[in-house]
Amino acid sequence: MLTTTERDRYQRQIMMDGFGEVGQEKLKQAKVFIAGAGGLGSPVAIYLAVAGVGQIRIVDRDVVELSNLNRQILHGDKDVDRGKAESAGEKLRQMNSDIKIETIAENITEDNIQELIGDCQLIVDAMDNFPTRYLLNKAALSRNMPFFHGSVHGLDGMATTIIPGETACLRCIFPEPPPTAIFPVIGVTPGIIGIIQATEVIKHIVGIGELLKNRLLVWDGTITHFGELIVKKDPQCRDCGSLT
Amino acid sequence: MPGMEVELSDNASLGELLQEVGRRVGNNFPEWIWNPQDRAFNPGILVFVDYEQVRDLTRQLHDGSQVFLAAALLGG
């Protein structure tokens, strides 16, 4: 049941066709796991928080560095050398004190991932490496849980929404990881991709629109162009090929 | 984004196209994209024909087929 304050706060989205108080209540009851509080994690978390997602759990083991500040907009000058999860939590609570923000400063590993996800209902991929992305993918598959992928490089970005059993999984789409490296990126790129991920999460929770299922959205900021590629489940996939 | 037109024989396969592309420009790519020893694009490179992901390199192409190569992006 929405409070009077919540009806006021979210008035502009409640009035959208197909959204209504029912949609807002769904957001309020949702529990979202965001893996990463960096370039992607910042806009994802911000927009899910201001939309009224009831519970947001953010996991990031890193400490804020000066070189993060061109893109990781949940962190500022005064947060350098501070834990990213803690820094993110503080800002998100300031943006929306009506929701619950949990922050965990831990590395995501095969040993702890199930515990970290806990009773969250979906996973947002805001990571910067593929080994962890693949762990998140496997966890999503094991739990039959939606998984919202995003990735960036320079002015390029990609996003897709993975629904276990229904779509290609992350390993179907990207069978091998790119090499690990310090990657170039300008803040607007994770800004765009993070907001697309947040849009997908909101649509999924509320039950409106069409998701990026088996669709890989490709953003080319150099020419300001969105493209779309159809991705396919791989029957030989080492992560989901044996799942029915 | 960069592209090229490639003329091939009738009923050429996707694999043949990739070999030709590799022959022409493979050495311009880092080794994680084009393997010069195997003379092949690495398995991590995604291949799309007419905007759909394809894994079968024996797939026949037709006149006007558009083939798109992509790699996973690392950052977040």
Characteristic key phrases:
heterodimer; A: 244 residues; alpha/beta; Rossmann fold; eight-stranded mixed beta sheet; 9 helices; 35% helix; 18% strand; B: 76 residues; alpha+beta; three-stranded antiparallel beta sheet; two-stranded antiparallel sheet; 1 helix; globular
CATH topology of chain A: Rossmann fold
Strand count, sense and barrel status of the largest sheet of chain B are: 3 strands, antiparallel
**Domain module count of chain B:** 1
User: Given the helix and strand composition of chain B, which structural class is it?
Assistant: alpha+beta
CATH class of chain A: Alpha Beta
Number of strands of chain B: 5
Structure description:
The complex is a heterodimer of chains A (about 240) and B (about 80). Chain A is of the alpha/beta class and about 240 residues long. Chain A has one domain (about 5-230): 3-Layer(aba) Sandwich (Rossmann fold). In chain A, about 35% of the residues lie in helices and about 20% in strands. An eight-stranded mixed beta sheet of chain A has the order 3-2-1-4-5-6-7-8, with helices on both faces. The longest helix of chain A is centred in the C-terminal third of the chain and has 19 residues, at about 190-205. Chain A is globular and about 50 Å long. With about 80 residues, chain B is of the alpha+beta class. Chain B has one helix and five strands; from the N terminus they run αβββββ. A three-stranded antiparallel beta sheet of chain B has the order 4-3-5, with no helix packed on it. In chain B, strands 1-2 form a two-stranded antiparallel sheet. In chain B, a hairpin with a 2-residue loop joins strand 3 (about 45-50) and strand 4 (about 50-55). Chain B is globular. The chains are: A alpha/beta (about 240), B alpha+beta (about 80).
